[in-house]
TrEMBL record:
The Methyltransferase FkbM domain, residue ranges: 199-263
Keyword check for Mitochondrion: no
Signal peptide from the UniProt entry: 1-17
InterPro entries, per database record: FkbM_Methyltransferase, FkbM_mtfrase, SAM-dependent_MTases_sf
PANTHER family: NODULATION PROTEIN, SLL1456 PROTEIN-RELATED
Keywords noted in UniProt: Signal
Organism placement in taxonomy: Eukaryota, Sar, Stramenopiles, Ochrophyta, Pelagophyceae
Pfam families linked: Methyltransf_21 (PF05050)
GO molecular function, one term: O-methyltransferase activity
Transmembrane segments: none
Protein name: Methyltransferase FkbM domain-containing protein
Keyword Signal: yes
Length: 289
């Protein structure tokens, strides 16, 4: 359609060059207007939305409450002590860890089964991804009960039937004396320690019934290595591990462990590293990037 209009415009304009001034003005007035860049972008967005697997957003279901918008979708946000934390991390054109978000989206386009996120915080990665990929199952875990309660309410408010959240921390083995250090002013940096009364579980225990695990995502403020020690069975059927690397307590031991389990580093963005089964890295790297 646009090409035909362009050809028509060129032909008519050429003919108008043979006319007098008044006649040329009349011809220009009747020419179809060329699409602006914004119009072409709007048309492309309509075409994408028309073929999207996501349901259209209905703002009325938010009951007049907050709405958080990423570049690709919107979410109702329930009223809570964590409302502003979630909105701050999600409600912008960039958001928190934008390159990590982009990496996760590219990865999940190739992923099937269950996506596990430990250290889910207020669900600022978990919930938008679950809304964008309703064909995948998401399991989120966090040791703070108030954050988990917020994420559960968000799941209900946005009808995300593919999300399950658990209140627990991770360690190499189950124990019931896990504490949570809330001393950091950044609530996203709270970390697990001992001398508490909370439950620590393992990756293997949480994902025991998940036959198909597409991704294990760990943001545990230094506990990533110990968590992976409790996930050896899962790593045998989970081809992708993404973890934060700027608070590692055990130095390079996490890298030795992943290599021993058959993984190789594939990518690093911001302060997060993606490791994949070594057999996948040389075969899929060019297509993936």
């Amino acid at each position: 359609m646009a090409l035909r209009a362009l050809i028509f415009s060129v032909l008519v304009a050429a003919g108008a060059a043979l006319l007098g001034g008044d006649e040329r003005a009349e011809v220009r007035r009747r020419l179809p207007a060329a699409d602006s860049l914004s119009a072409r972008r709007a048309r492309l967005r309509r075409q994408i939305n028309a073929t999207s697997f996501r349901r259209p957003f209905d703002a009325t279901r938010c009951g007049g409450g907050h709405v958080a918008a990423t570049r690709r979708l919107k979410l109702c946000v329930v009223e809570s002590e964590w409302t502003q934390e979630f909105v701050m991390r999600v409600n912008s054109t960039v958001g928190w860890e934008p390159r990590t978000r982009a990496l996760l989206r590219r990865l999940l386009q190739q992923t099937t089964g269950t996506v596990f996120e430990a250290g889910a915080h207020v669900g600022d990665h978990l919930l938008p991804l679950a809304a964008a990929f309703p064909n995948l199952r998401f399991v989120g875990l966090d040791p703070d009960p108030s954050k988990v309660a917020f994420v559960e309410r968000m799941v209900a408010a946005n009808a995300l039937a593919n999300v399950r959240v658990i209140t627990a921390a991770l360690d190499a083995a189950p124990r019931d004396d896990c504490g949570l250090d809330r001393s950091d002013a950044n609530a996203g940096a709270w970390r697990v320690g001992g001398n508490g009364t909370g439950a620590c579980t393992t990756i293997d225990a949480v994902l025991a019934s998940a036959d198909d695990v597409g991704l294990v995502h760990l943001d545990l403020e230094g506990f990533e290595y110990r968590a992976l020690l409790g996930g050896n069975a899962t790593l045998g059927r989970a081809p992708n591990v993404l973890f934060e690397n700027d608070h590692l307590d055990e130095g390079g031991r996490i890298y030795d462990h992943l290599e021993a389990m058959g993984f190789a580093k594939f990518d690093e963005v911001e302060h997060n590293e993606l490791w994949r089964w070594a057999s996948l890295v040389p075969d899929e790297e060019d297509d993936y990037r």
